[in-house]
Amino acid sequence: MVSFNFSTIINEAWFRYDDENKIVAITDVSAQVSTNHVFKVEFEYRNPVYAKLSYYGLYEHFREDHVIINNLANNLEAPYENFLARSLVKDNEVFIYRYTKSFVDAWVIFYNPIKIKNKMPRRLDEKHIVSLAHALAYFHKSCFNIRKSLPKSSKTLQTDIVQLKEIVLSNKRCDVSGYEKLILEHCDKFLKMLKN
Q: What is the pTM of this model?
């Protein structure tokens, strides 16, 4: 399992982005549902930003994904124009910092926060489920309408599965001990179904 100091990496990334506004607090706000870590970064003289840090997969894929996400955030139609957080940009490019020291290869991207008017209830009743379904359908329609404005991705589900197999077989970058056979079996089933 990879273990290192996230605060050091975030501080270094921020310094490369803006060496004038000093960080006063970094708080882990990760949802614990992915390989990414999310942190609220607070300053003395500017509004907070959020840092997303990852070390899973390939830097090139992380960069490509976040350029696409930022493009999507900037092009969504109303009422979704503020649905996705926008990345911080430097020199007309999405700013992504790559930290490579000793055995660590990690990447950080900063986001401006988005405003949330109302949070969903912890448990949804039927009317909330129906409302959410309608909202998601309209969101997908908005995504469909701007699909041609998004940069092309070099990744597909197939390339992701092939990469997952390589990671499991090499036993690097993730701990799946005891589940290797099951994961590889499902990867092979998926790849076989793609060919049919």
A: 0.79
